[in-house]
Amino acid sequence: MTKSDLKIDKKNSTAAIVCLIAIAAVFTFPESFYSQSKYKYVGVNTCVGACHKSEAQGNQFNIWKESNHSKAFQTLQTPEADSIALSKGFNAPAAETPHCVKCHTFGTEVDESELKASFDKNQGVQCESCHGPGSGYSKLSVMKDKESAMSKGLIIHTEKEKFCIQCHNSDSPTFFQFDYEPMWQQIAHSKPKVFKE
Ligand code: HEC
Ligand code: HEC
Ligand code: HEC
């Protein structure tokens, strides 16, 4: 945005403010969702096909599967979710309401062309929701070298709490509180040995 774009007359200022809010929203929501990446989402089944599954590999799949993240889209397909959506003024079922879908799986903010056929949004908040689209880094030959994987789109969070609260915040109608340590302990999944240090 250039300086002259900001020189707006009164008549246009409301529209401009709405526009600025929309821009701010796009850039504050989970970076992995909105980054205009050249990589595509391959889906959790691709991530765990040969890797990230066994005890020796770090058991990430089972930890995720047993967590509520894997069920997050099913949660939206319940009468309870629909009545929450209704109470927030949305007229469509929760699973079809972009405001709800954006935190519970991928929504309209991700273009269909960014999803490979193997990606299934019924699988809720997936590996790639947090680690970035995997088409570039999912190959074992790339994944073996963490730096190379990161240069091909893998996201490893250093500011973990900051990342979590992009979804775990009062924008969630059922939000109560987010206490990072115990919450991370519920989903903690460690590093497998195949990574090169
Ligand atoms: C893309 C949005 C998103 C991000 C990012 C996210 N979560 Fe979640 N999380 C959810 C949703 C949605 C649920 C609720 C799923 C359900 O109940 O169906 C949830 C549920 C959970 C639960 C289960 C809590 C319960 O009482 O049911 C834990 C634990 C959790 N998240 C931890 C974390 C941690 C730790 C992070 C950061 C490392 C994180 N989440 C990042 C969306 C997200
Ligand atoms: C809710 C967000 C979230 C989901 C879903 C998620 N992860 Fe993670 N993952 C994290 C965070 C945060 C870390 C911690 C980064 C760190 O170690 O500092 C992490 C760490 C890891 C690590 C260790 C990386 C390292 O070098 O330290 C691996 C491997 C991993 N995740 C794989 C997976 C796989 C495979 C899935 C899907 C089955 C998955 N993750 C799902 C957030 C998530
Ligand atoms: C900002 C992200 C976000 C948005 C937007 C969001 N949710 Fe959630 N939702 C979450 C998280 C995170 C959880 C886990 C509990 C918590 O901390 O709120 C959750 C949990 C839930 C639960 C399970 C509650 C429970 O206690 O088991 C339902 C139902 C739900 N959301 C419905 C909805 C509906 C309906 C909408 C749209 C009107 C919506 N959510 C919008 C993030 C979000």
Any chance you could write out the topology, listing elements then pairs?
Elements: H1 3-6, H2 10-28, H3 31-34, H4 44-48, H5 60-66, H6 72-75, H7 79-87, H8 98-104, H9 127-131, H10 140-143, H11 146-151, H12 160-164, H13 180-187
The chain binds heme C (3 copies).
Residues 75-76, 80-81, 84-85, 88, 90, 94, 97, 99-100, 102-104, 167-169, 171-176 line the site of one heme C.
Give structural notes.
This protein has 197 residues and is mainly α. It has one domain: Flavocytochrome C3, Chain A, domain 2, CATH 1.10.1130. 44% of the residues lie in helices and 0% in strands. The chain has 13 helices and no strands. The longest helix is centred in the N-terminal third of the chain and has 19 residues, at 10-28. It binds heme C (3 copies).
Give keywords:
single chain, 197 residues, mainly alpha, Flavocytochrome C3, Chain A, domain 2, disordered N terminus, binds heme C
Short description:
Helices cover 44% and strands 0% of the residues.
Backbone shape: globular
Tell me the Rg in angstroms: 19 Å
CATH architecture: Orthogonal Bundle
What composes the largest sheet? Answer: none
Bound molecules: heme C
Strand content: under 5%
Contiguous helical run count: 13
Helix/strand structural class? mainly alpha
CATH class: Mainly Alpha
Ranges where pLDDT stays below 50 over 5 or more residues in a row are: 1-28
Distance between the first and last residues' Cα: 41 Å
Count of DSSP strands: 0
Q: Which sequence of SSEs, written as H and E, runs from N to C?
A: HHHHHHHHHHHHH
Number of domains: 1
Average pLDDT confidence is 83
Here the CATH topology equals Flavocytochrome C3, Chain A, domain 2
Helix content: 40-55%
